[in-house]
Amino acid sequence: MKPARDLTPEDAHSLRGVLFDLDDTLLSHGVLTRAAYDALWSLAEAGLRLIAVTGRPSGWGEVIARQWPIDAAVTENGAIVVAKDGSGVSRFDPCDERERRARRTRLAEIVRDVERVVPEARLTDDVDARRADVTWDIGERMRLPDDRVAAILRVIQGAGARSFASSVHVHATFDPDDKASGTLGYLVRAFGEDAGAATAARYAFVGDSGNDAACFAAFRVTFGVANVRRHLPRILVPPKYVAQSEMGAGFAEIAAVLLERRGKPVGCDRPGRC
Question: For 46, which DSSP code?
Fold first, then answer.
């Protein structure tokens, strides 16, 4: 991985947007710091599309797409997209309600199986805001040992479901998308992007952990905040660049580099006059 400051002006100028994870990337231990939020606004004011790409629930997406300077939130690891739509939001779910209910029933069976195998495991406190997955807390409000996390993953996989593990949660889902495919599908539908051009040059991704691996592999211009180093054993293709700082401070550092390479320093809303 190269230092974030090694980003070339050519790559910075080719970008139409920035895709970013939330937990431990934009957020610092669950908190949106002033520096990270200012960085979001600076990127938006520079004319870049901003899309949150997160394992967090679609219910969160409906809030942040309304209130933050972003175009959309790809939530639940790619399954559900919530996009800004005038003064409100619109939600894209590839499943009809009948299929969604059937998948939720199968997920409830996995929850019961996990309760039996790993009784100390706890569902996350945001699980009721989810449509496409269920999640267990492994590092947000409680710390679950690696062997118990592995036991949860075995239950999920044994039920024929897909699993994701972030720095804070384990996810189970029957939806086929991951963060990369869900995001690319949105870019094609919403903006008419060519998927190849989007991944090669037009969008950068910023992340930190194992459930970001699909995006690190799919996009050419990728960044990790410094804490990504703890998760590299679970990331087949590491990010191309890495920040010196962790979490929200690292996101702000990456935003500053992007804007500097594009000729617009952070905090400057008058190009060429700062």
Answer: T
Reading the block at residue 120, the tokens are 């100390």
CA distance 252 to 230: 20
* Residue keyed to tokens 């008419």: 192
Cα separation, 166 vs 5, whole angstroms: 26
What is the spatial order of strands in the sheet that 2-3 belongs to? 2-3, 241-242, 221-224, 203-207, 17-20, 49-53, 72-75, 80-85, 88-92
pLDDT of residue 265: 52
Q: Find out whether 93 and 130 touch, Cβ atoms under 8 Å.
A: no
Mean pLDDT (the chain) is: 95
Return the domain boundaries, the chain. 2-94+178-261, 97-173
* DSSP 8-state code for residue 230: G
pLDDT in the model for residue 271: 42
Residue ranges of the alpha helices (H) in 126-262? Answer: 146-158, 179-191, 195-197, 213-218, 247-261
Q: Between 3.30.2420.10, 3.20.20.450, 3.40.50.300, 3.90.1070.10, what CATH number should domain 97-173 receive?
A: 3.90.1070.10
At residue 264 the predicted structure's pLDDT band, cuts being 50, 70 and 90, is low
The arithmetic mean of pLDDT across residues 81-102, rounded, is 96
Which pLDDT score is estimated for 270? Answer: 43
pTM value > 0.90: yes
From 21, 182, 27, 30, select the one nearest 91 (Cα to Cα). Answer: 182
Cα separation, 156 vs 159, whole angstroms: 5
Indicate the SS3 state at residue 166: coil
Q: What are phi and psi of 36, to 5 degrees?
A: -70, -40
